[in-house]
Amino acid sequence: MKLSTTGYGGVILFVLTIFFYAPGCWNDFVTWDDYSYVVENPHVLDGLSLENIRWSWSTLSQANYHPLTWMSLQLDATLFGTEPFGFHLSSVLLHAVNVLLIYSVMSRLTRSPSIGWCVAAIWGLHPVHVESVAWISERKDVLSILFGLLAFRRYLKIRIQEDPSTINSLATDPVLHFWFVCSLLSKQTLVTLPIMMILADYLMLSDFPNPNQKDQQEVTSHQLKAIGNSVYRHIPLLVMSLIFSVVVFFAQQQGATVADLESHSLGQRLLNGILSYGRYLIMLLSPVGQYYFFYPMEPLTWLDWKVILSFFFLVAMTLTGVVFKHRHPWLLFGWLWFLISLLPMIGIIQIGSQALSDRYLYWPAIGIDLIVIKLIDLIIQHTIAKQNDHRDNYLIAVCLILMAGLSIKTVTQIQTWRDDPSLFGHALNFDPDNSVANNNYGYWLLRNRQFSAALPFFEIGINANSKNALAWRNRAICLWELGDRNEAINSLMHAIELRRKTLTWRSTLGSFLYQTQRYSEAEQYLQESLNDVPDDPAAWYHLGRCNESLGKWGEAKRCYQILLQLNPGDAQATLRLNAIPSQER
Helix H segments across 160-234? Predict the structure, then answer.
């Protein structure tokens, strides 16, 4: 079976990917970030407009800077409306295009369309990637990797021409730089992409001489020169990566998502990183277990057998790749692709409280998929197809068997993302004490005004992780609705203490304090909230009422006037403004 990057092989891949992922288009939004990204975000729901595009390029909302992701979601709202179907459809289509791009990139990189087809096929149908595709909030993943693959494809197109003047144009190629910047403006996942290109120069594209040559000194000199030339060609991309790394760290700091050393010590992060590499490999190579939306951190020590086993496997695999780098360069290349691509997400700089995430494998998995397919091809070459007859056919046949198994698990995994009860209930079935799953399941009940049913889930979430600020916040709302106002205020104060930079919660606390006639305290919290979100109508209203109660008529008048600027014709603001004594107006 001969496959080409422009023939029917691509059509088959595209159709298969759409076929198996299409059921996810009928999934609902989930409360885990989808409401912040889409459902309750007027900048997205109103679609593409100059005002919303301006917002996309200026906001650090969701502790990220990804204007192209926001614009893609706005485009969905413009084209398909505000129902989840259109958002899911776009993510599925983008994933299918990514499969085609991997087919093209790996075919060129390995100089084998069959290898490229198989790598793309098992990558596209692997269940570990369902989170990136089925979760609307992870649009940033599929979009960032699409642009990154276009950048890598452009690099290969120039690089394989073997013309030194053309190769050196990589340093100034506007198309390559454009695609890379677009990737970073979607999500900063691929800050390591320039390193992948340098590795491709070194290992896959024969940029360096064979060390078996007699003059070892000449070989070493040539290698150092070639490395220097490769690094030089990618300096602009490396600078872009550095700039965007600083940008995303600042955005995460502003969003209070970067964990401090008190929450997770550096030692714990290193141990978790070592173990996570091993767990990621198991997820990729043995996709028969359960995939969760959230994997909590667990206490580890340097004597933990899982950490020791993972560490020695990482070392052994790296040494094996180095030993065989000349006979089988794809082994070291694929392995370093996996290790280096995962490094920014491995948890040394801890974002949130998760130990690892399925979505973090969307790009790094390509390296392991390359190794798996090349190993299968090598085994076939040395056993049943020694003369190279029908070798591609055997490889495709084995790949089809793998695809059949992967697709069954993928379809099942897509169904777990159907809605909140499916997603969070699935996690709780296997991990009843999962703090995040309990909080999110409770929040779904809270949104449906089932306050008594929701409260126990928040309690379990807090018992599992006393620093879960969201669970404390949601518990406060439940208690307030159930009439336990003092405990609700205490719970919300504790949530704010845990997440001091989340000033918007102070607006809720201010309204609680106002309704319990603690006007001075309410005024303080409302003002702090408005310093962060000055266009919050509810906060301006409650601040105006507090000022009225404190006899600050001028301040109350100003609050209602600002509220009317935000919401012209607001009946409550107009009523309260007219209620201010005439001599104070």
Answer: 164-168, 174-186, 193-199, 216-233
Q: For the chain, how far is it from start to end, CA to CA, in angstroms?
A: 84
Take residue 426 and report the two structure tokens written for it: 């699935």
Amino acid residing at 92: V
Tokens found for residue 45: 């729901």
Pair 580, 556: CB distance under 8 Å: yes
Separation between Cα atoms, residue 93 and residue 57, nearest integer Å: 25
Q: At what angle do helices 420-430 and 391-416 cross, to 10 degrees?
A: 100
Q: Which of 174-188, 418-432, 526-540 has the highest mean pLDDT?
A: 174-188
Of residues 462 and 581, the one with the higher pLDDT is 462
Q: Are 310 and 356 in contact (CB under 8 A)?
A: no
DSSP summary character for residue 344: G
pLDDT at residue 292 tops 80? no
Q: What one-letter code names the amino acid at 34? A: D
Which uninterrupted H or E stretch holds 47? none
Whether residue 7 contacts residue 1, with contact meaning beta carbons closer than 8 Å, is answered with: no
State pLDDT tens for residues 532-578: 788 888 888 888 889 888 888 888 888 888 888 888 888 888 888 88
Q: Which residues contact 240 (CB under 8 A, 6 or more apart)?
A: 177, 180, 181, 184
Contact present, 337 and 367 (Cβ < 8 Å): yes
In a 10 Å sphere around its CB, with 0-12 CB exposed, 13-18 middle and 19+ buried, how is residue 109 labelled? buried
- Maximum pairwise Cα distance, the chain: 101
Are the CB atoms for 204 and 109 separated by under 8 Å?
Answer: yes
Q: Rounded distance, CA 536 to CA 524, Å?
A: 15
Helical packing angle, 469-481 and 435-447, nearest 10°? 30
Is the pLDDT assigned to residue 389 strictly greater than 70? Answer: no
Q: Where are the beta strands (DSSP E) in 478-560?
A: none
Residue 110: the pLDDT is 92
Other C-beta atoms closer than 10 Å to the C-beta of 432 total 11
Contacts of 420 (CB under 8 A, 6+ apart): 28, 30, 31, 440, 441, 444
To the nearest whole number, what is the mean pLDDT of the chain? 87
C-beta neighbour count of 285 within 10 angstroms:
10
Inform me whether the pLDDT recorded for 15 exceeds 80.
yes
CA nearest neighbour of 505 among 487, 526, 524:
526
Distances from the Cα of 128 to the Cαs of 73, 203, 229, 412, 550, in angstroms? 23, 28, 37, 12, 57
Q: Taking 60 as the threshold, does the pLDDT of residue 363 lie above it?
A: yes
3-state secondary structure of 503: coil
SS3 content of the chain, % helix, strand, coil (to 5): 75, 0, 25
CA distance 163 to 225: 17
**What does the DSSP assignment read for 112-155?**
-HHHHHHHHHHHHT-GGGHHHHH-GGGHHHHHHHHHHHHHHHHH
pLDDT of residue 579: 81
